[in-house]
Amino acid sequence: CCSDINTAVLVENELVCEGTDNGDLPSCVSAFIEKEVGNDIKSLKKLDKLIEQMTESKMQLEEQVLTVSSEIPKRIHSALKNAEESKQFLNQFLEQETHLFSSINSHLLTAQPWMEDLGAMINQIEEIERHLAYLKWISQIEELSDNIQQYLMTNNVPEAASTLVSMAQLDIKLQESSCTHLLGFMRATVKFWHKILKDKLTSDFEEILAQLHWPFVAPPQSQTVGISRPASAPEIYSNLETLFCQLLKLQTSDELFTEPKQLPEKYSLPASPSVILPIQIMLTPLQKRFRYHFRGNRQTNVISKPEWYLAQILLWIGNHTQFLDEKIQPILDKVGSSVNARLEFSRGLMMLVLEKLAADIPCLLYDDSLFCHLVDEVLLFERELHSAHGYPSTFANCMHILSEETCFQRWLTVERKFALQKMDSMLSSEAAWISQYKDITDVDEMKVPDCAETFMTLLLVITDRYKNLPTASRKLQFLELQKDLVDDFRIRLTQVMKEETRASLGFRYCAILNAVNYISTVLADWADNVFFLQLQQAALEVFAENNTLSKLQLGQLASMESSVFDDMINLLERLKHDMLTRQVDHVFREVKDAAKLYKKERWLSLPSQSEQAVMSLSSSACPLLLTLRDRLLQLEQQLCFSLFKVFWQMLVEKLDIYIYQEIILANHFNEGGAAQLHFDMTRNLFPLFSHYCKRPENYFKHVKEACILLNLNVGSALLLRDVLQSTSGQPPATAALNEVGIYKLAQQDVEILLNLRTNWPNTGK
């Protein structure tokens, strides 16, 4: 406690001294005494205690000073001593390093001759090991060669074939070696035995096939000729299986020497392995027949008759399918092969077709008639090949040949040319604007003119022709052609429509409108087709790579909000809307002309309902209603249902505003006039449209609500007017309006209509 007190006193003393000028000691003491004693005489009693505290503080400070002054030299001395020792250690290490360095150099000089001798010996050992390995390879090759020779001498062909497989596998392993002579020796040995075995097995296999009357040029029903004797058939098929399996073993070595026939890279054929050896042998007689008949100067080799060789290939595939499925496929399954015998056979024959097409197409490329005929026949062939014989589209096929750049561009040009010619003929036909199904009500809902249906059939046929192209980029080019044709047809329709503008209600004008609507509807349906959705995805990738669309457009394509036909559909919809608007305007002008007398009706002086025995239609309204009825019936017969629905709804919208503004707001009504207007509208005008909808009055909102207001009884009308004047637009006014059936008209319009009434009581106002 004393120590703490002393410290506190010291601190206070230091603070007091710091507060004086320049730390003056007398001033410091004076300040300290002033602080501790002050003016209070009684505080002098503290002096003894203060002196004692100050003495202790002085002693403590002196001890601290002595301690510090004695410790600092010791620390400095210790640090110097440590530094000296470190210096000595460092010198010792440097001396050791120098000694070791000289020792190592001396040792290296001594060992250098030994290293050179040892390196030479290691090189000799490695060379000897390489020679030994080389000799081992030669020995292994010779051993395998001797084994094959022995097996053949004992007529053990299966073992000879298996040994050749081992030798071929060794050949493949050695391909990375730089020993060219060893590689040459190995390849020559394999080739030697492969030729011997292949020739022997091929000869035996062809003999068995001959016994089976292969190839089958006749229909499948007559394929049992030659093997009808039950005693010989099992043995023949057993030998067939044995030889087939042995030839299959030679596949590895055969691929080392036989390069598969490849067409030029420009055709972009998919990579595919060679046809398996036994199937190759089975194909040989058919290949000879094909080349004999469809090459050179033979009468069967006619460039204008591609259907001859295409039909021949399909016939051969069909004739041999049963045999391949029933006799050859089980052999392949038995040895664990994944090869499909029928498809492998078809693939081999397909190469004949591809070679023939690649040779013929350049010769007829610029003869439109021949080229178009070739394309048609190829497409029919492809369809038959895929549908009837299950040939996969991933295999090399005729579409790869047609996709070659020069040929493909020519195909597009010819396709466009013939499509335009077809469009010319369909539009110039006498029946162009007549529906084929006009007499069949159930079928003729769309009232499609013949030219529009023929055009969409043309587009559908084009789609069917190009949908099996191997690449999306080629399909997209055809899609652009289709879009161009749609746009061209739209322009042609527009031109014909302009010629018919003066007769906008005529038969041809309506037929054009039906055509535009039909094409737009079909394109919208196609946009949801899987094929076109896939093309949309492909187009999205192309546009993204080329930066040809904005991020918004790309997003719409990706999210399927838009489709590949959107541009075309939008243009067609705009044309449809313009044509409908022109028709509506035409009918509306006629209706307005017919309504002139009705506008001048004396609504202010008509007799009340009570003064008439029976309410009847205003005579001045008859021309208006007759004109409207006749035009509605005419257009209902000439326009398809969806178009007519839009037409009458557009007409009703204009008619509602016209009657409201030009007839109702332009007149004043007594009780009889309001009742007559209500009768004319609700019992005569509205029912004209009841055939097209259940509640036609809902399409005449202005007229209906105006009739309600004009025919309110006087008390209700007075009450409603008071409510409107007192609330001026507040919710109670809306509730009051809704209560009497007013939902469309604004409060201001209601007040105007109420003021058109003349049957108000005389209130003196």
TrEMBL record:
GO terms for biological process: endoplasmic reticulum to Golgi vesicle-mediated transport; regulation of ER to Golgi vesicle-mediated transport; retrograde vesicle-mediated transport, Golgi to endoplasmic reticulum. The keyword Protein transport does not apply. PROSITE patterns: RINT1_TIP20 (PS51386). Belongs to the RINT1 family. The keyword Phosphoprotein does not apply. GO terms for cellular component: Dsl1/NZR complex. Gene3D superfamilies: Dsl1p vesicle tethering complex, Tip20p subunit, domain D. Keywords: Coiled coil. This is RAD50-interacting protein 1. Signal peptide: none annotated. Residues 44-71 form a coiled coil.
